[in-house]
Amino acid sequence: MQPCRIDLADDLRPHLERIIRLPTTPQRLVLRARCVLMVNQELGVRETARRLGVRPQTVRKWVGRVRKYGLKGLQDAARSGRPHQISGLERAAVVDAACAAPTTMASRG
Questions:
Q1: Which pTM does this prediction carry?
Q2: For the chain, how long is the longest CA-to-CA vector?
Q3: Residue whose C-alpha is closest to residue 70's, from 31, 13, 19
Q4: In angstroms, rounded to a whole number, what is the distance separating the alpha carbons of residues 32 and 6?
Q5: Residue 108 and residue 98: Cα distance in Å, rounded?
Q6: Is there a contact between 50 and 9 (Cβ–Cβ < 8 Å)?
Q7: Helix 45-52 to helix 56-69 angle, to the nearest 10 degrees?
Q8: For 42-88, what is each residue's pLDDT tens digit?
C-alpha cells in the first residue's frame, strides 16, 4: 500500500486548526481535521490512528477526501434515500396541530 501523504495549501492549514480550536465545532469534524493535520506533520497513518483511537482506514479516508475536495471533504457525504413527501412548512403545520391543546366540544347531544 502506498504511503498516505498530504501537502496542505497554505490557506487550508489555518482553517483546519480553527476547526479544532472552536468550542462549537462538532467532534466528528474535529477528529477529521486532526487526522489530516497529523498526517501532514508526517506522523504516518498508523501513528495518527493510534493516537486518535481510530482505525488506519479512517485516517486514509479523511486524508483522501481533503486531498480531493479540500475543506468540503470533511463534511458528511450525501446519503441516499427516499425524498421528502411533504415540505418543511407542511411538516411544521402538522407538528403545530399535534402539539396544540385539544378543543373541547361545547355541546354534546
A1: 0.68
A2: 82
A3: 13
A4: 14
A5: 23
A6: no
A7: 110
A8: 888 999 999 999 999 999 999 999 989 989 999 988 888 888 888 98
